[in-house]
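Records of this kind hold a single protein each, on a pair of labelled lines. Below, a sample record shows both lines together.
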Amino acid sequence: ERQEFAVYQKLLQICDGLENTLLDSPTAEEIQIASDLVQKGADSARADDTKSMKPAVIDWITPADGFLNPPLNRRYKISRGFNHEVTGGLLCPAGLDWNNPEYGSL
């Protein structure tokens, strides 16, 4: 409960006018609208973070010689994940051998 209150206090510091909106809102509907807007902002920030992180991951997993074989497209996700030899190996559970054809290696 204390942690939730601390988060609430921090949110009031970050969002100018939120406290007044909550205190001046006479209806539950208006408070719900304010809550939805805060959640929308949080969701948008999270999406921006992952969107900007995806190209960086390609840079991180590219070998020192500068090439992935087959190459990964920075725009399209179709060849990523388990569909790619390198990313599939990184996603494969630690107890399994990605190079074993039984587990789906390409």
In short: Residues 47 and 53 are 10 Å apart (CA to CA). The chain is about 60% helix and 0% strand. The radius of gyration is 22 Å. The longest helix spans residues 28-61.
